Every structure is written in structure tokens, then in C-alpha cells.
Amino acid sequence: MTTLHRGAAARPAVDRSLATFGWLVFAFLYLPIVLVVAFSFSRSESVGRWGGFSLRWYEQMLGNDQLLNALWNSVVVALISTLVATVLGTAAALSLDRYRRWVGRGAFDGLLYLPIIIPDVTMAVMLLLWFTQTGVVALGRGSITLAHIAFNISFVAIVVRARLAHMDPAMEDAAADLYANRWQRFRRVTLPLIMPGVLGGALLALTLSLDDVVITSFVQGPGSTTLPVYVFGLIRRTVTPVINAVSTVMIVVSMVLVLTSLVFQRRSEKSK
Amino acid sequence: MKRLFVLLAVLALVAAACGSDADDTTTTAAAGGDTTQPTEAPVEGIQAAANACAEGATDGPLNLYNWTDYIPTGALAEDFEVDDLVAKFEEEHGENVTLTFFNSNEDMLAQIDAGASYDVVVPSDYMVVTMIDADLLVELNRDAVPNLDANIAPLFQDPAYDAGNRFSAPYQWGTTGIGYLYGSIDDSEGVSWAVLFDPEMATPNAGYISLLNDTRETLGSALKYLGYSLNTTNPDEVDEAAQLIADAREHIAAFNSSSYWTLLSSGEFNLSQGWNGDFLAEYDRISEYDDDGNLTYDAYEDFGYAIPVEGSAAWVDTMAIPTTAEHPCTAHTFINFMLDAENGGTLTNFNYYASPNEAAEEYIYEEILEWDAIYPPPETMAILEFFEDLGDFNNYYADAFTAAKG
Amino acid sequence: MTLLDEREKAQTEAVNPRLERKARRRESWRGFFHAAPAFVYLTFFFTLPLLVVFVFSFASRSNTGKPQLEGWNLDSWTRIADPLVRTIAVRSLTMAIANTVLCLLIAYPFAYWIATRARQSTRTLLLIAVLVPFWSNFLVRTYAWRMLLDSDGYITQLGELTGLWGRMLFTAPAVFIGLVYGYLPFMVLPLYAALERMDWSLVEAGRDLYASGAKAFQKITLPLSKPGIIAGSILVFIPSLGAYVTPDILGGAKTNLLGNLIVTQFQAARNWPFGSALSGAIMIIMLVATLVYFRTGGRTV
User: Which of A25, A108, A169 sits opposite C110 (nearest CB)?
Assistant: First the structure.
């Protein structure tokens, strides 16, 4: 199943056109990114006019307390909400895939779809009202995190369910003979098998949390502005390459995080 | 894999341990207009606390809710070479200031109305009326803000949106007009709104024009062009203005309130409806200086700002204390601080908007005071109109603008 | 529940009906237990707030916009039948469908290329490479496109050089470039997942039968990858329906879309009841559509 040209005889013309098209799509995907990163190193204040190489925007970024605070808020919120949403979402996916008959299963299945189809601003308003009227948590990083978890659970659940549906039960079955304990079976067999799905869901949740503007701007509180909200405000007033510098940093950090997790996964797979 | 989860878990614990920066106390009263809303602390409570504030007293840190980059602080203040007013307040009064930003009056209203707690907010004139009507503002304790009576210019002492400045203190004021590339229109005898609205006159610049994406402002300029008041409550007049805007969609490039000045300076637009401070700050930004500080490129030779001959809007941004505030005394002290002559001057020198603070004129750069675009001459002042809140008729405007955009 | 348990259960069931009932109850309890945390969380931070908003849709509009909990009426709901709302809805629908189709046309060959022509080891990296651009800030990316498509933009310059196009900013093509750019990964990933899992021996068999690559593709690959096409289309279509930031920035905000309409109700228009009703209507329609699809046997996985 892992031959290079699956399902087809090697046909150079088709191969070449597919490859060309593929690289064109990558060019399309990276064009703005290259621009953003390149101009983060430009001396000129105008984004778009190259003014010579300079690190001044990175310096300015490091000196801007508001911005660093916003970046920190974004990272903390994203990590916590991803962690919680991944755990809850994976459990939810398991409950739907593994257990076919329990009270409320149908309703729960439908409920999980709602956060995906609800318009952003509706969710933003309803959570703002909820937090302020019930006072369950004051507006701030806590409220933003709770909001992000709310919409991320569903996304994680969908990704993990997709993975679960394609798992070969025989593998689990065979390995299950080795472990008498239910929890051990889960930890040693099921979890590693669904890990790609769980990681995929977590990655998705992380991305969605880091990028969220509308919901966050409604449920934020004093001093808890996150990066996208801050950038949105910045773009209104001073369009300087400082924003490019921030974006570049975010891309690099994300890449490092993901590649690290890949390396860990490869290593743990080998050790099995 | 396990290790990554452990890493994430540890990070989460550390972050939680660092503590959140939100108060533990629950938020206080929300809108007073709804009798069925649960109120946790009555409006009278915060009003009583405010009435007891002494001048210069503080009762905790300040939560300031302001427009983005409307007050000089941090790196931006350095760039413009003015005092960091936030840091200055923190030093002088020993209280921390937490800045949160909003991008529109309505965003701010939604937050306050829902009960979010801020000590000082910066609403625009028409929004102040709405908030007063909804019992969302604390009446100012005059003893705690002496600068309000002492420093504010007579024109702003008793404004239409807040008689006697009972609930608000003027912050900055400005005008709406047309920023344009010299040569794109004939400005020898003044500029008319026609260059934006009249299909014939707009044709030379078709596809390079922008209007504000703002109900009152955009409808307002259309109304002025048609010769009506921008506070009219005559539905036919509003409909006529809305129709003008709907037709204008043919030849404009965009509705834009948030980045029109950069699009003008970069050549995407030749004409933009916008606010004076935004244009002027941008022109200054793109002017170039050599290392000795001499002007090598003067943007003012290429770009201009004009208030159309039919008249236009003047608006005032204010500082106010919402009823959801938790530190009213610090709030009063901050307002008084901003109304100080020197600080008022710094503010104008930073954001290029006119100051309603007469005493501040001593500290404002000469060239700003003499600048017609910022401090209009009397004949221009005569054709400017301030926005008034229209009560229920606001909804008519909002719906008309929505329909105009299609 | 593993197959081991099921086998046990089957064996014991055959023998003892009481044990059978017990086993069923256990299964029911376990399923509920796994779902409980998420269920409780969503109840408190989703369902209940949503009900509040739903209630608001029947309330009266106040001056500040926040609904007055008196004077209950159906005004907001009847307003949805307004011709203006209909125009806006149709416009959003058209845009969402067009975006979905465009994304599909571009993502399919791309996903196919990664799934069939790339080496096993590089496939993951390529997929990650698809996601990397999305870890930058969405607004910054969109403004970067604005720069690329404006009068001095590189894309515009290329167009003028080849004589194929001019300034695309503030026109419909710019909006679609921005939308496709924003949603392509949502189409690529499910398509890739479906293509990767396919039984390619079927395709090879098909090639023998049809003696033509194109025919085999049409009769076998395409239908087999349908779950991926459906999943990707749903993931692109639904958010596209509410999209408004990209059209505003790249299209000049000259027309209203459903997203703008709803946001405006909660802000400038100060009409929360109508905004709530609109949101409710969209959600109900989407929910019904999804349920109908699943009930008629459609699967996305």
C-alpha cells in the first residue's frame, strides 16, 4: 500500500503536471508569508517599501510591553485551552465511537456540531452576557480560556472520531489479551493508536485559539488583550512592520513546537 | 509523546500559578433600563462612592478602556517624542494603569452594557447621550475634577450631548472632511462633497475614492451635501441621503474607517472621507527627514485635507466613568490628570487632534495651533455641526445605512 | 469497549439473559461517563448561553441595543423575510458555494499529489507545510494580500506585465483569492485523509478493466474519495457562509454579507434581538441540513 505511484503506472506527463501544480499551490500559500517575513527585516516604516536590512522592528517588539503582554496572554490561553479541549474532545469522541447505545447519545452527537456552525459574533455576545451576568468568572484571561475551550472541544472530537472510525479493531483485540486492566489497555494500546488523531485535533485547537479575534475581543477584560485583538487595533492606527516581526516570531515558534512534537512521536514509536 | 503532554501540563500549571490579572470580585450593576436584569450592586452605590472622592485621592489601580493608540505610551510615545502619559500618571499617583483597547463606540457600549468593569472609558459625544439615558455613567464629582471647570474652553463647557459636562469630560475634538491627493480634484474654490457623491464629478477618480464605514458619519456627509442637518429626524431626508450612498457604490473603491489614511498615502485612493487627525498624523509619518532632522520629503506638498463648503461634522471624544467602575476615586483623579494643561498639550502633540482644553494651548506646538486643519478658523467653525443623539430615531439611520450598502 | 469485552459479552449473553441486561447497562453507563465531562462543560458554556440569546430574539429592541425583557414579539423573526435580508442571504450563499467549489478544484489535485506521489516520510512534512502559514496572524495575512493586490502590488505588476489583469483589489476576484487562501487547508486535509486511506488495489484493478487512467479515476477514485469531498466541503462551506472580514478588507466593504449583517446588529445598528434571530435562523438551517444528510445515510468518515 505504500508504493510510490499508487494505483497507477508511472506516467511522467501526469506526474510532472501534478508536481507542477502542487508546487504552484505551495507558492500561492507562501507568497504572503514570504512577504510578511521579508518586510519584518526592512528598515523602512512603510510596509511595502524595502529600506535596507534592519532588526529595528524586533527591537521595538521586545520593548513594547503591551505587545509582549498580549503575546503572553495568547500563548497561555492557547496552551491551556488546547490541553483541556483535547482531553474533553477525545473522551467525547470515544464515547460516540465506542459506545453505541447510551442515554442521550443522539442529542450529544448533535450538540457537538453546534459550536462549529454557530456564527462567531453570536457566540461572542452570548458568552459575554453569560460571564458578566452570572459572574462565574471575571472577564480576563480566564473567561477567554473558557470561551476557547467551548469552541475547541467539537473540533477535536471530529478529528479524533475520524481517526477512530478507521482503526483496525483486530490490533486492539490482540494487544488486549496482554493486559488485564482496562486502563492499561487504554494507555498502552488505544491511546498510541489514536494519537495521530489526538495530535491532529490538538494542533487544530491550538491554531484556532491563537487566531481568534471576534470571540476574544468580546470576552476579554482589563489587561487580558490577546495578540490578534491587539494587532487588529494596531492595524487601525500605525501600520508598521512591527506586526510583521510579531507574525514571523509566531510562525517560527509554532513550527518549532510542531517539529518537536513530531520528533517526540517518532522517537516513542521507535521505542515500541 | 508522554513527555509533550507533561510539558504542556507543567506549562499550564505554571501559567495558572502566575495568577490571572482579573479581579475576583463579581461585576457590578448593568443597564438600569431593564427592570428584570439582576443587579448585584445598585447604581446608587457607585454614585455615593464617587461623591465621596477627594481631589487627588485614589482607591486602587486604574482600568482604562480607550481607543487604540489614543493616549501616548510606550514605544509610540517615544517615536513622537512626547511624554508617556500612562507612566507619568503611575508615577505621580502611585497606582497601576491597565490599558484595554476598543475599536468602536458600539464595541465599548456592548461591553459596559453587559457589565464589564472599567474605571474610565472614552466614548464619543453621541455615545455619551446613549449611555446617560441607559444609566451607564456616573455623575462626576466636581470637587475631584477641578480642572474640568478651570481649563476647558467655553465652547465645550455646556455641550449639547451632556449639559454642563455632568457625566463626561472632553478629551479631544476633531472634524470630518476629505483627505486628498493634490491635483486629483479642483480645490481652487474650496472642496465640495460632490467629488464623492456626484457621479459626474466623481468620475475622474472613480475606483480611487473611499467613504467612511460609519452610519452617522457617512449619512451625515450625504445629508450635508444635500443641504440638510446631519441630526435631522426627517425620514425622507435620511432616505435621500441613503440613496445617494447606494448610488455612490458605483464609483467608490471601498467603505473604510480603519485604514483609509494609509491607502490614501500609498496611492490606492485619491480621495478619502475621514478624520483630520488621522490624515495629518499619516502625512507627518510619511514625510522623510535626513539624519540631521531636516525635511527631505514633505508629504504636505502632495496631500491635503479640506472641510467641504457645504459643511461637515465636528465631534468630541470624552472621558467618562461607567457605573461598572470599581475604583471611582482613581478614575476621577485620572480625568483631572488628563485635563491638566501640560498633559492636555502632550495629548494633542501626540495624536494631532485639537484639544478642548484652553489652558493646554500654552503647551501645544505652534504649528499645530496655527493649523487650519486642526484648529479651524471661525468661518469654518460656523459650518460645522456636532452630532446629537437621536433617541429612537437612531435605529432609522442604522437601518437606512444597512439598506444603502445593500 | 474492546472486542474482547464484546466477545465475552456475546458468549455470556448466549447463556444468561440477566447478564446480558447487566452488560448493556454497563455499556450505557460507560458511554455516558466518557461523554459527561464534555457534556457538562458545553451545557454551562454553550447551551445555556445560547438559550439566553434565543430568548433575546423574542425581546424588544432598546436604545442601547441590549434587549428589554418585556414586550415579547416575533418582530425579529418576521424581519428575516425582508427582501434586504433575502438579498444578503443569497449573496452569502453564492459566495460560500463558489468558494467551496474553487477550494475543491484546487485542493483535490493537490491532495492527490501528496497522497499518491510523495514519499511516505515526506507526506507528513508536506501537510505541516500546508498548515504553517496559518500560524501567523489572520489579519496580517489578509493585509499582506491587500498589499499584493493593490496598485503597486507584485501580483498587479505581474498582471500588467503579461497584460492579463490590472488592480484586483476591491473587486470580487480579490475576495475569492482571499477566501480560497483562508480555507484551502480545511479542504486539503480531509481530502488527503480520504485518499490516503483508500484501497488502491481497487484502482489498479479498475485500470485493468477500463484500460484508461482517466476512466479509472472517474469510476473508482472519485467515488471512493467522496467522504473526503463531503467533509472538506462542509468544513469550508459553513464558515464561508458567515465570513465577512476577508470580503471587507479585500473587497472594500461595499456590500453586506450575513456576517456583516449579524455583527452590525450587535454593534452599530444596536438591534440585538434581530441579531439573535438571524444567528438562530442560520444555526437552525445548518443543523437541519446536517441532520438530514446524516439521516439519509451520508457519512463523512
Answer: A25
Nearest to C270 among B133, B214, B394 (CB): B394
Contacts of B16 in chain A (CB under 8 A): 80
CB distance B176 to B312 below 8 Å: yes
Q: Which domain holds residue A48?
A: 12-56
> pLDDT for A177-188, tens place per residue?
777 677 777 777
* Segments in chain A forming alpha helices (H): 12-39, 56-63, 65-98, 105-117, 120-134, 141-165, 169-176, 182-185, 191-211, 214-219, 227-237, 242-270
The dihedral through the CA atoms of B12, A129, C139, A244 has a sign that is: negative
Say if A6 falls within a structural domain: no
Question: In this structure, which amino acid lies at residue B345?
Answer: G
Q: Are A239 and B262 within 8 A, CB to CB? A: yes
The residue of chain C with its CA nearest to that of B216 is C268
Sign of CA dihedral B352, B357, B362, B363: negative
Cβ neighbours for C111, distance < 8 A, ≥ 6 positions apart: C187, C188, C191, C192, C195, C228
Cα(C42)–Cα(A154) distance, integer angstroms: 10
The answer to whether residue B18 sits within a structural domain is no
Backbone conformation region of residue A245, classed left if phi is above 0, alpha if psi is from -120 to 50, else beta = alpha
Asked whether residue B293 falls in the same domain as residue B320, the answer is no
Same domain, C118 and C183: yes
Q: A124-138, B263-277, C158-172, C240-254: which has the minimum mean pLDDT?
A: A124-138
- Interior angle at CA B121, CA B116 and CA B122, nearest 5: 140
Strand (E) or helix (H) holding B382: helix B378-382
Q: Which of A86-90, A97-101, C51-55 has the highest mean pLDDT?
A: A86-90
ipTM of predicted assembly, 2 dp: 0.81
Average model confidence (pLDDT) across chain B: 84
Q: Which pTM was predicted?
A: 0.81
Q: Are residues A88 and A105 in the same domain?
A: yes
pLDDT digits (tens, 9 = 90+) for B316-331: 999 999 999 999 999 9
Q: Is residue C68 part of a domain?
A: no
- Domain of residue C222 covers 75-295
Sign of the Cα pseudo-torsion (B122, B127, B133, B136, in order): negative
